[in-house]
Automatic annotation (TrEMBL):
This is [acyl-carrier-protein] S-malonyltransferase. Signal peptide: none annotated. Keywords: Acyltransferase, Transferase. The keyword Acyltransferase applies. The keyword Nucleotide-binding does not apply. It comes from the Bacteria. Residues 5-326 form the Malonyl-CoA:ACP transacylase (MAT) domain. SUPFAM superfamilies: FabD/lysophospholipase-like, Probable ACP-binding domain of malonyl-CoA ACP transacylase, Single hybrid motif. It catalyses: holo-[ACP] + malonyl-CoA = malonyl-[ACP] + CoA. Its EC number is 2.3.1.39.
């Protein structure tokens, strides 16, 4: 199976779009998308310096536009799976056929502006924690009042929260780790972004969405996305929920992905996949950064596409935690019970009261993935529901 990956914020480099403007129609397409996103994508991708493209409001639509522009030159009908990291998920959703390209770029513009505005409300930031035991790292973040905003696998967890708490983490790092502050505007994928999630939800509610034409992995839990409206709700929820790229890579391995293409600006996700999915059966990887890389990408597609590249989506769906707190499944259905879409399966007890955990599909409750009274985080898988999809 062949997977195409769309990178997220932090992967951008000054001038990375310049060679793509030589392709027929590329400049006109970017001018159209600039009007939708409210930023000058041609300037940002060709002449802007590193500081200018570090601005969240500009970076997010730029990355989505770059991925979509490059993907237009690939035979996507031969691609079986797509996934994106953080804002890259909007690009992946368009490549999966859930959203039109115009909607993905427009939502990226709204998302970037609203997240930038949320960052300005109080001093927050992010830091990469490299190495160490993952459980010990998470425990240390919790002790400092920080959030695991990105769990990227390959020994990398990104902490996010108040600047003062990040300073304390750097001064008292978990055992066998290095803490590296990231040059970002705020604590993405945490409750600090709640105003941005609300604003994005208001716009996304009016966006038409279709069922995925190919497997689309969700950052919430690494599971294949379901029907269009549910996928859009997940994209909105991702603004405050942790990015579980580790679970996305686990699904790549579980589904037997043999080839990976990372869209521009490529390198970050390819590096994570290379470090995590190694040894026998490791996928072949192409990083697509300039049009000169297109022949290698086409050859990879020819080697790894075919009937096996488009299997039926796995016959299960995962219900994830809607909030942080403790799981109450005391009155929930037992494993093997038939459940229906919208049925309440349990609750998450939070400081603001109980939050319902509901099924988003019909089918048998195959497995509870968390025990009663377990502490759970937003986006954590709780229940596996079977079905035919």
């Amino acid at each position: 199976m062949l997977a195409v990956l769309s990178p997220g914020q932090g992967s951008q480099k000054p001038g990375f779009l310049t060679p793509w403007l030589d392709l027929p129609g590329a400049e006109a397409r970017l001018r159209w998308w600039s009007a939708l996103a409210g930023v000058d994508l041609i300037h940002l991708g060709t002449r802007a310096d590193a500081d200018e493209i570090k601005d969240t409001a500009r970076t997010q639509p730029l990355l989505v536009a770059a991925a979509l522009l490059a993907a237009e030159h690939l035979p996507m009908h031969d691609v079986g799976l797509v996934a994106g990291h953080s804002v890259g998920e909007l690009g992946a959703a368009a490549l999966a056929g859930v959203l039109p390209a115009e909607s993905a770029v427009t939502l990226a513009g709204v998302r970037g502006r609203e997240m930038a505005a949320a960052c300005a409300l109080e001093p927050t930031g992010m830091a990469a924690v490299l190495g160490g035991d993952p459980d010990e790292v998470i425990a240390a973040l919790t002790a400092h009042g920080l959030h695991p905003a990105n769990r990227n696998g390959a020994g990398q967890i990104v902490a996010a929260g108040a600047v003062e708490a990040l300073d304390k983490l750097a001064a008292e790092p978990p055992a066998r780790t290095r803490v590296i502050r990231l040059q970002v505007a705020g604590a993405f994928h945490t409750p600090y972004m709640a105003p941005a999630e609300t604003a994005l939800a208001a716009v996304a509610a009016g966006v038409p969405a279709s069922a995925p034409a190919r497997i689309l992995l969700s950052n919430l839990d690494g599971a294949p996305a379901g029907h269009g409206p549910e996928t859009v709700r997940r994209l909105v929820r991702q603004v405050t929920a942790p990015v579980r790229w580790d679970l996305c890579m686990r699904t790549l391995a579980d589904l037997g992905v043999t080839g990976v293409i990372e869209l521009p600006p490529a390198g970050t996700l390819a590096g994570l996949v290379k470090r995590e999915l190694k040894g026998e059966g490791a996928p072949e990887i192409v990083t697509l950064n300039t049009p000169a890389d297109l022949p290698a990408a086409h050859r990879l597609i020819a080697r790894h596409a075919g009937p096996a590249a488009r299997p039926a989506a796995p016959s299960f769906r995962v219900v994830v935690s809607p909030a942080a707190g403790r799981l109450d499944r005391s009155a929930g259905p037992a494993e093997g019970t038939e459940v229906r879409a919208g049925q309440v399966l349990g609750h998450v007890a939070t400081g603001r009261g109980p939050v319902e955990v509901t099924a988003h599909d019909n089918g048998p409750l195959v497995e509870w993935l968390a025990h009663h009274d377990d502490p759970v985080a937003p986006g954590q898988p709780l229940v596996r529901i079977g079905g035919t999809h």
